[in-house]
Amino acid sequence: MKKLLWLGCLSYLVIGVAHVIGGSILEQMVEHYGLSYKDGGQWIMNQFIGFLVGVLLAPSLTARIGKRGAVLVAIGALTVSEAAYSLLPPWEWMLAIAPLAGVGFGMTEAVVGAMIIDLVKDGKASAMSRLETFFGVGALLIPLGAAYLIQQQAWQTAFPALAALSAVTFMLWLTLSFGQEADEEIGFQPGVDRIKPNKHEVVGDRPTLSVNQPAASAFFGYPRRSLPFLLLAALFFMLYVGMEMSFSNYLPSILIEKVGVHEANAAATLSLFWGAMVAGRLFAGVLADRMGYARYLLYATIGATVIFALLASAGSLSWLLALIVLSGLLLSGIFGIALVYANALIPGMTERTTSLLVACGGLGGAVFPRLTGWFMDSYSAGVTLWYIGLQVLVLLLILLFMVALGRRQQLSHG
């Protein structure tokens, strides 16, 4: 199982790079093709559309060809698309290739995440946090690598480098054995229903043996009693990812406007934030496994609400930097632990639930940063920070309702 987890970590590092590589060299691409930023934004949006398609297709593809087969299709699509990017074809072709790249890293994220949540029996939160840590490492390293390549006037080699890393990952998924039991679980077995009852239910925030689940379903196979919790979880993920992407994307601009930080130093603070995210993910899973998923999420979200209120109020650079680090530490585990928590409370639907929630997160990551940009254009950086802080407060309210519904579900089966 350790071998499978480490290969999952490598896969998440690859998709972490894939998520941010476009933004890292967007300036150079716009100049190379003689385009506007709007055209560059269309390319990124095409990747996002492919991301949503890949995430939503993941459960049905897994049901047909198995988990390993779905990962191979996803990473293969990513490898081919990045190799095609490497040729710097005409812009119309770049736009056409972009959805394929999005399908690749979107499906990889959904399938590998669901696989680890499903197969790891003990320490699910720790395992998911490890995946998220490697995603953060990829997102942290590629801007630094891209900066070096740009300095060497070799920015276009970022694409073949990612294609090569993706190809190595593809070969490892194709050839490695993870033990007979794991190989059978992730391989395709004709005639076997891939969506099977989960053996684990959550009681007191921790997995225990569950009673038999009702067969009646109301929405894509989900039990009717699970729908209110599922809806709240979808809203939680959409708002969380939208908030995180808004804060990280506009953080340099906020600091430039709020305290007059130099542009280069403002950009460096983004690495500070992501570095704190990576550091926090090293411990988030262990804490969540010990404290319980719901309790961890509540403490982290309450802490983040306080930190963002302080961020909006702070006026000195030193305080802002300290609060940025604290925000990264507190936010670091929320996505991964919330994914584990939601799957634990809706057993037997891991692949479908993971895909749905990751897709909702992707939708929020596309919509909310645009609204945040409107706030930056129309109001001050301080007002924008209060707006982001309000989003965190709403997150906390949604989480409180989720926890209440989750406990009610546990009591009804206790």
Report on this model:
81% of the residues lie in helices and 2% in strands. By secondary structure, the protein is mostly helical. Helix 8 packs antiparallel against helix 9 (263-291), helix 8 (227-259) packs parallel to helix 13 and helix 8 packs antiparallel against helix 14. It has two domains: 2-186, MFS general substrate transporter like domains (Growth Hormone, Chain: A, Up-down Bundle); 200-413, MFS general substrate transporter like domains (Growth Hormone, Chain: A, Up-down Bundle), CATH 1.20.1250.20. The radius of gyration is 21 Å and the shape is globular. Strands 1-2 form a two-stranded antiparallel ribbon.
Radius of gyration: 21 Å
What is the count of helical runs?
Answer: 14
Spans of at least 5 consecutive residues with low confidence: 189-216
The helix content, as a percent range, equals over 70%
Q: What structural class do you assign from the helix and strand content?
A: mainly alpha
Question: Strand tally, please?
Answer: 2
CATH class of the largest domain: Mainly Alpha
> Which architecture of the largest domain does the CATH hierarchy give at level 2?
Up-down Bundle
Mean pLDDT: 85
Spatial strand sequence of the major β-sheet: 1-2
Q: What is the CA–CA distance across the termini?
A: 31 Å
The major pleated sheet works out as: 2 strands, antiparallel
| CATH fold group of the largest domain | Growth Hormone, Chain: A
Strand content: under 5%
Principal-axes geometry comes out as globular
Can you say what the CATH homologous superfamily of the largest domain is? Answer: MFS general substrate transporter like domains
SSE succession: HHHHHHHEEHHHHHHH
How many discrete domains? 2
